Structure to design on (267 residues):
């Protein structure tokens, strides 16, 4: 696997099909009541050039890589906290780029939360392709209020076990802990984001006759909300996405097919 750092010239020439940037044309539309049309893990895959796997149009969403070293205590990091990626986190971003290059012919857009950890991850994916990232506030992690900056054990000691266990198991927001913005606002914003991405990918495919791909980088809490929006499920063991892992969605009319969730890009 090639190694490089964001902003530096890669150690080998990178090749990618370049697609001319076009102005996105988003229609004003309300997010659909249900934006999930089921799961199809393999039904729409086919073999392309040199045995590469070719896909339908897709939105590939990554959780950013590690921000804590193995010997560090992890704390709650919300939308108002910027952290750099560790060396392992940067390596996860390089792996994410390799996965995109291996699996998809070309990428039209790379979108990121404005937070430092997500921007670094997105830039590491984008730089070898010669692409610029676009920032979207709707992908920012929510603020964790009274939990911000605390270790799990400190949250349990101060506020009890029930709230943190409900969050971990079912994605239930704790009451009175100052999380912002509200869950309703977060889901509304993400619903609009997904609707816009669906429209843009579908229109691009209709215009060019070829599959279109967008990459997004966000945080774990945002992906939990996206999972609930897509499936209607909350208490689900598959809800959590590991650092550096990906979720692949394919537009199906005005809904989405969940193709992969918590995908390890090394495989």
């Amino acid at each position: 696997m090639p190694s490089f750092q964001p902003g530096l010239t890669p150690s080998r020439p990178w090749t990618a099909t370049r697609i001319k940037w076009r102005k996105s044309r988003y229609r004003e539309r309300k997010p659909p009541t249900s934006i999930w049309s089921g799961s199809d893990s393999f039904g729409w895959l086919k073999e392309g050039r040199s045995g590469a796997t070719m896909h339908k149009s897709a939105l590939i969403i990554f959780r950013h890589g590690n921000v804590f070293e193995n010997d560090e205590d992890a704390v709650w990091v919300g939308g108002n906290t910027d952290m750099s990626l560790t060396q392992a986190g940067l390596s996860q971003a390089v792996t994410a780029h390799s996965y995109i290059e291996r699996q998809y012919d070309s990428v039209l857009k790379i979108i990121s939360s404005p937070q430092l950890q997500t921007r670094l991850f997105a830039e590491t994916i984008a730089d070898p392709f010669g692409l610029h990232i676009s920032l979207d506030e709707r992908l920012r992690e929510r603020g964790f209020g009274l939990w911000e900056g605390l270790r799990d054990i400190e949250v349990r000691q101060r506020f009890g076990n029930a709230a943190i266990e409900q969050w971990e198991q079912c994605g239930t927001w704790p009451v009175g802990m100052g999380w912002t913005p509200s869950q309703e606002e977060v889901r509304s914003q993400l619903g609009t984001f997904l609707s816009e991405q669906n429209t843009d990918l579908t229109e691009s495919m209709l215009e060019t006759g070829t599959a279109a791909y967008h990459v997004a980088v966000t945080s774990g809490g945002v992906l939990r909300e996206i999972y609930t929006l897509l499936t209607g499920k909350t208490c689900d063991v598959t809800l959590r996405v590991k650092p550096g892992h990906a979720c692949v969605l394919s537009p199906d009319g005005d809904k989405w097919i969940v193709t992969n969730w918590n995908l390890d890009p090394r495989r």
In short: The longest strand covers residues 255-263. Residues 36-263 form a domain with the Rossmann fold fold (CATH 3.40.50.1240).
